[in-house]
Amino acid sequence: MRKRVGFTMIELLVVIAIIGILVSLLLPAVQAAREAARRTQCNNNIKQLVLALHNYADVNRMFPPGHLETGEENPPPGGQTAQHQIGWLTYLLPYVEQSATYKLVPFNEINPSANVNKNAAFFAAAGTLIATFLCPSDPMPLVALSTAPANYVANQGTDCMCQFNVCSGVFGHSTFTKLAWITDGTSTTIAVSETLRGDNNPATLLDNYISTSSTSANAQDVTTCQSFAPNASDRGLSWIGGQPQYNMFSTNRVPNDALYDCRAPNYGCTNMAARSAHSGGGVIVGMCDGSLHFISQNIDLATYQALGTRSGGEIVSLDF
Ligand SMILES: [Ca+2]
Predict the structure, then answer these.
(1) Residues, beta carbon < 5 Å, ion ligand 1
(2) Cα(248)–Cα(236) distance, rounded to whole angstroms?
(3) Bridging pattern class, strands 292-296 and 282-287
(4) Distance 268 CA to ligand 1 centre (A)
(5) What is the H or E stretch that residue 87 is in?
(6) What is the pairing mode between strands 248-249 and 152-155?
(7) What is the pLDDT at residue 197?
(8) Torsion 147-151-154-157 (CA) sign
(9) Alpha-carbon span 42 to 133, nearest angstrom
(10) What are the respective helix, strand and coil percentages of the chain, to the nearest 5?
């Protein structure tokens, strides 16, 4: 009698089923390992950024502004307002090994008669993708724009409008904070956190926020702000840009807040929560002393706000 070779159909099915089970056991582990690697990268980036802030402060005796208008601050009647708004990450370029890009930024160009943001040199700098500015845990694909994005945002505290050194947080418009002003202590004051990038497409609602010029809207009052339709989708889409949705966050509301971020009225007041897609629900923050923490979106709001102020006088335990 001829000996049977090969497998029966049942044997084959059993083998396939076993392989399927093994793969299904392995895949989540592989995915978890990949996300852990991505998260480590996001952690390292924030660490680099806070170190860069300190290196900047060593040279300049203060932190860089959250954002700054380098054009005419008060143009003559009928003149255009300043066009060149520069975000804080721009000032850190020399301290994260990006001096070549830094040299392209036309900081001092004042040209109220033209939109200098269309300056060729500006876009050569603005369009440069910088890995240190990107958190690979953000699931949003990179959008092809003339400005390159960033996942890192600076702490403006609980303020809606933070400018000219009058800020509860550490960074603001035309604000240059000295380390000595952080009287609550650098280990309990947040410097940097994360945001989720938009896709620049208001038709895809999930990543939208509310941006309105209505003077009846108050971004500081997040609940009231929700009555407006979420209509903007450019959060995090320019590291160079000096607009709050690109580079600032508020501790007025907890990380990953379920309500929409707000910007109103007339773009003056912003209330953007820190956001991330990390498992566990929360965001990484870099404190002003360079230490890193993962802050849960379930954190007590008063504690979170205390971590946002630089000189609020609150007592915060170190196990937040
Ligand atoms: Ca504080």
Answers:
(1) 184, 306, 309, 312, 314
(2) 9
(3) antiparallel
(4) 24
(5) strand 85-87
(6) parallel
(7) 96
(8) positive
(9) 9
(10) 35, 10, 55
Domain boundary assignment for the chain = 41-70+83-308
- At 112 the pLDDT is 44
Ligand 1 geometric centre to CA of 155 (Å): 12
pLDDT at 294 over 90: yes
**Neighbour-count burial of 57, counting CB atoms closer than 10 A to its CB (0-12 exposed, 13-18 middle, 19+ buried):** middle
Look up tokens 């580079």; give the residue: 247
Q: What is the pLDDT of residues 21-68, one digit of tens each?
A: 988 888 888 888 888 999 999 999 999 999 999 999 999 999 999 988
CA 157 – ligand 1 centroid, Å: 9
Q: Environment class of residue 161 by beta-carbon count within 10 Å: exposed (0-12), middle (13-18) or buried (19+)?
A: middle
Q: Please, are residues 201 and 237 in contact by the beta-carbon 8 Å criterion? A: no
| 3-class secondary structure, 293 | strand
Higher pLDDT, 166 or 122: 166
Q: What is the dihedral of CA 82, 84, 87, 88, to 10 degrees?
A: -90
Residue closest to 173 by CA, chosen among 184, 188, 163, 187: 163
Note if the pTM is more than 0.85.
yes
Q: What is the pLDDT of residue 267?
A: 54
CA of 107 to the centre of ligand 1 (A): 32
Gap from CA of 256 to ligand 1 centroid (Å): 20
pLDDT at 71: 56
In Å, the largest CA–CA distance within the chain is: 105
Q: Is the peptide bond before 244 cis (omega within 30 degrees of 0)?
A: no
